[in-house]
């Protein structure tokens, strides 16, 4: 479950109409949401609040060997007036992302004189209510010492460009007189709908980077995407550090059905058919890292509105090592019962009067059918297993007005770095003594509770 500040940043992207998914960094986001989820560590409590439409706060307290926590603040000149902020009203699918449906790329409107022309009406696009560029400021201080400060500056430069500056500063031990270690990551993003480019620079080893994504098919700047049923995207990334002579690159492909592919009306209009071309939404990805020889493929399927499946297979041509991971998510859906009204409580009296005088009261119409918005997604269960029989189970749901995440990890190795090191040390000791490593199973349980107002 993402934290409250990440949820507000997603609302900022939606409010400024910035497509975060049209990026190479999100090429495998669907499979990662289903397979690479993390379970909470020990016990953690989050208390958050959207104090004003432009200002949010969040406090975290946890126990991981020792008591630790964080304090976060966020400001945006774009108001979040229509964004649900209480934990009882926030849609759970916003906080617990699962199968991520790829949407057709949309080209931003044409920029003219600092405003956006949308037909005959001028609207703000990526701007605050005062006409200034949309800006977000976010800072998180992690305690206790040695403290770490993470800060983010996000600014919409134009309808197609966005600038972000991320700073991470860690203070040394209490008795150390050394200056804090700080790293600055600068990222400039350019998204036209048809393609996107990201340019990165990090002060850590003077690392330069580039990421690009290209969507095949009609250009959304000149053609409509209403009739598109599937989307094929290709992308690549490259990094280079002149200080450490570090070089890295990767490339990938993604094929995904669009929402129109499962809509009978759209499909019949486009292809003169009475059935859609795809019964279930699905996404296929292929990524390759040439320098390390790693090849990975994934297949994700949304079998029903409440069930999604995913699998991933990885292979290394240099070491002949392979990886197989499978996972699923299952949502529990309940319907809110209709609220009883005073008129409903007196229906028995009306029936009695109708038997004496039918013209006194007309028959009460049947209650309306339950609408889709009246359905409440209460909880989700995620399961993941790999070829080494490492199993993760995560339950996320709403208990009264609290958002709760509870997870457990089982397997011959831990999923947290500290437990993984101790488990590996135990396994090595048993192997040298002639024991069986298969009996050294690790188990960990964690709970995270969140409340926002």
From TrEMBL:
The keyword Ribosomal protein does not apply. Keywords: Membrane, Mitochondrion, Mitochondrion outer membrane, Transmembrane, Transmembrane beta strand. It is a multi-pass membrane protein. It is found in: Mitochondrion outer membrane. InterPro entries: Mdm10 (IPR027539). Its main location: mitochondrion. Residues 356-375, 415-439 are annotated as: Disordered. Belongs to the MDM10 family. Component of the ER-mitochondria encounter structure (ERMES) or MDM complex, composed of MMM1, MDM10, MDM12 and MDM34. Associates with the mitochondrial outer membrane sorting assembly machinery SAM(core) complex. Component of the ERMES/MDM complex, which serves as a molecular tether to connect the endoplasmic reticulum and mitochondria. Components of this complex are involved in the control of mitochondrial shape and protein biogenesis and may function in phospholipid exchange. MDM10 is involved in the late assembly steps of the general translocase of the mitochondrial outer membrane (TOM complex). Functions in the TOM40-specific route of the assembly of outer membrane beta-barrel proteins, including the association of TOM40 with the receptor TOM22 and small TOM proteins. HAMAP family: Mdm10. Lacks alpha-helical transmembrane segments, suggesting that it resides in the membrane via beta-sheet conformations similar to those predicted for other outer membrane proteins and porin. PANTHER family: MITOCHONDRIAL DISTRIBUTION AND MORPHOLOGY PROTEIN 10 (PTHR28035). This is Mitochondrial distribution and morphology protein 10. It comes from Aspergillus cavernicola. The lineage of its organism: Eukaryota, Fungi, Dikarya, Ascomycota, Pezizomycotina. The gene is MDM10.
């Amino acid at each position: 479950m993402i934290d409250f500040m990440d949820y507000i940043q997603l609302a900022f992207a939606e409010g400024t109409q910035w497509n975060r998914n049209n990026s190479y960094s999100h090429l495998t986001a669907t499979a990662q949401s289903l397979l690479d989820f993390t379970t909470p560590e020990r016990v953690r409590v989050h208390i958050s609040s959207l104090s004003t439409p432009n200002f949010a706060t969040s406090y975290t307290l946890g126990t991981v060997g020792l008591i630790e926590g964080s304090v976060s603040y966020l400001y945006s000149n774009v108001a979040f007036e229509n964004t649900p902020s209480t934990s009882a009203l926030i849609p759970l699918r916003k906080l617990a992302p699962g199968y991520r449906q790829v949407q057709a790329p949309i080209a931003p409107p044409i920029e003219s004189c600092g405003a956006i022309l949308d037909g005959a009406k001028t609207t703000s696009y990526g701007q605050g209510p005062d006409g200034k560029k949309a800006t977000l400021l976010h800072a998180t201080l992690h305690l206790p010492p040695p403290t770490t400060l993470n800060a983010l500056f996000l600014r919409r430069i134009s309808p197609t460009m966005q600038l972000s500056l991320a700073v991470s500063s860690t203070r040394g031990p209490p008795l150390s007189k050394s200056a804090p270690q700080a790293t600055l990551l600068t990222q400039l993003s350019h998204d036209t709908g048809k393609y996107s480019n990201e340019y990165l620079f990090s002060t850590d080893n003077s690392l330069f980077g580039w990421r690009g994504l290209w969507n095949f098919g009609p250009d959304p700047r000149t053609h409509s995407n209403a009739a598109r049923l599937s989307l094929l995207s290709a992308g690549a990334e490259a990094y280079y550090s002149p200080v450490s002579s570090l070089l890295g690159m990767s490339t990938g492909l993604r094929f995904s059905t669009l929402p129109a592919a499962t809509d009978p009306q759209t499909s019949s209009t486009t292809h003169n058919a009475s059935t859609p071309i795809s019964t279930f939404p699905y996404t296929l990805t292929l990524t390759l890292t040439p320098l390390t020889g790693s090849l990975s493929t994934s297949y994700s399927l949304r079998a029903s509105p409440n069930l999604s499946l995913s699998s991933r297979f990885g292979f290394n041509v240099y070491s002949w090592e392979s990886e197989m991971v499978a996972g699923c998510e299952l949502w529990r859906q309940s319907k809110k019962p209709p609220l009883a009204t005073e008129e409903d409580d007196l229906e028995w009296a009306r029936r009695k009067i109708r038997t004496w005088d039918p013209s006194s009261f007309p028959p009460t119409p049947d209650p309306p059918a339950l609408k889709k918005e009246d359905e409440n997604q209460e909880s989700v269960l995620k399961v993941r297993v790999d070829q080494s029989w490492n199993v993760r189970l995560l339950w996320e749901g709403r208990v009264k007005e609290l958002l709760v995440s509870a997870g457990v990890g089982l397997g011959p190795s831990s999923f947290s770095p500290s437990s993984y090191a101790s488990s590996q040390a135990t396994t090595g000791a048993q192997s040298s003594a002639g024991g069986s490593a298969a009996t050294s199973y690790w188990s960990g349980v964690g709970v995270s509770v969140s409340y926002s107002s």
